[in-house]
Write a structure and sequence with these properties.
Elements: E1 6-11, H1 19-32, E2 37-42, H2 44-47, H3 56-71, E3 79-82, H4 88-97, H5 102-106, H6 109-115, H7 124-127, H8 129-138, E4 144-146, H9 152-168, H10 170-175, E5 187-189, H11 224-233, H12 252-265, H13 269-276, H14 281-307, H15 310-339
Parallel strand pairs: 1-2, 2-3, 4-5
The structure holds adenosine-5'-tetraphosphate.
Length: about 350
């Protein structure tokens, strides 16, 4: 069966959204609306895999929703909701916990990085995070998943889970009259010059919400002054910018800033180097700061306006959740048949 082409992706409400989330994910979410039916989720169940303050979590959930809307996601044409409002995500995740193998999860690098040395003390949710992610995608039988480079491994696991479910339950799938490929193999969409935006302080680390130094990232709600100052202070090396992409090899900080410029301007790194190659960083940084302020300023202002009206944001989430639930419950009815659960 040809699956209906459908996009699913999520963002965790775990702190300040930054330029990496924007370029690696949200900008792509916006563009995909033209070609696909899209489901965009604020993944609060994922967020609690590490401790979240229950007073802060609703604020962060509304802020991510505001970012989706401020960037141009249309919640009427597409679906925007928070994960915990659709219980089927957690239900399918449990079934996938029983399909996925411990050996598969043991290979996940994000768990190793996030659990760090204190692995014994990490939550079980953090360990099984990828099975919930597979459920998020597959409960809508989504075919395309726009994400940053850091999520590639989890997406590969989602594909393995879909395949193993289809194989393990092949007879039951057939016996119940469902199509043999019950779950699709979701395709990662990881493209463009900023699939992995790096820290402004250290070109070997990804820009992240949890990095203690605020100078490592540009937040979507930063003021124009903050953005300009962070870019001015961004780590670079003493060489001038190269004129060709090859010259960015082994210069991670320069490569990062050029990639950010290209992604914000909607061009390729080669074009940026054609314009700025041979020049000093100071002139390039000043052009980058202007561009970043021009692109992010309106987004931040609109986010701040939207979060002033939590009732409106909650109504968007409730409406999206209701429409998502209809689709998710259809999948789950079929899954219950396939697995052999007695249900009404
Ligand atoms: N640095 C990045 N460059 C490109 N894409 C990125 N994404 C995240 N960081 C970068 C993409 O943004 C989407 C949402 O990410 P998330 O909600 O999983 O959160 P996160 O920013 O990765 O932050 P965490 O996990 O809350 O904390 P950290 O990273 O601080 O430990 C995803 O599509 C992701 O790929």
């Amino acid at each position: 069966m040809a699956f209906k082409q459908r996009v699913f992706s999520g963002v965790q409400p775990t702190g300040n959204l930054h330029l990496g989330n924007y370029l690696g994910a949200i900008v792509k979410f916006v563009a995909l609306q033209e070609r696909y039916d899209c489901i965009y989720c604020v993944v609060d169940l994922h967020a609690i895999t590490v401790w979240q303050d229950p007073v802060e979590l609703p604020r962060a959930t509304r802020e991510v929703t505001a970012a989706f809307l401020a960037c141009g996601i249309d919640p009427k044409k597409h679906i925007v909701f928070n994960q915990s409002q659709v219980a089927e995500h957690a239900e399918l995740a449990w079934i996938f916990n029983c399909v996925a193998r411990v050996g598969w999860l043991n290979r996940m690098t994000q768990f190793k990085e996030k659990a760090g040395k204190d692995r014994e003390n990490a939550s079980i949710g953090l360990y099984s995070y990828p099975t919930l992610m597979a459920a998020d995608i597959l409960v809508y039988r989504a075919t395309h998943v726009p994400v940053g480079e850091d999520q590639k491994q989890h997406l590969e696991l989602s594909r393995d889970i879909a395949q193993k479910f289809n194989n393990d339950f092949a007879d039951s799938i057939r016996a119940h009259g469902y199509d043999e490929a019950f779950f699709p193999q979701p395709e990662p969409l990881i493209q463009g010059p900023a699939t992995r935006v790096m820290s402004l302080r250290d070109g070997s680390k990804k820009m992240s919400k949890s990095e203690p130094s605020d100078y490592s990232r540009i937040n979507l709600t930063d003021s124009a002054d903050d953005i300009a100052q962070k870019i001015r202070k961004a780590k670079t090396d003493p060489e001038a910018l190269p004129s060709e992409e090859k010259g960015l090899e082994s210069r991670p900080e320069a490569d990062n800033l050029v990639g950010i410029y290209a992604a914000l301007a909607g061009t390729a790194k080669a074009d940026v180097l054609r314009q700025f190659g041979g020049g000093q960083f100071s002139a390039f940084k000043s052009a980058l700061a202007d561009l970043a302020v021009a692109k992010l300023g309106p987004v931040g202002a609109e986010m701040k306006r939207l979060v002033q009206d939590p009732a409106y944001i909650d109504s968007v989430l409730a409406d999206g959740a209701q429409r998502a639930r209809v689709m998710a419950s259809d999948t789950m009815k079929a899954v219950r048949d396939i697995v052999g659960f007695v249900h009404s």
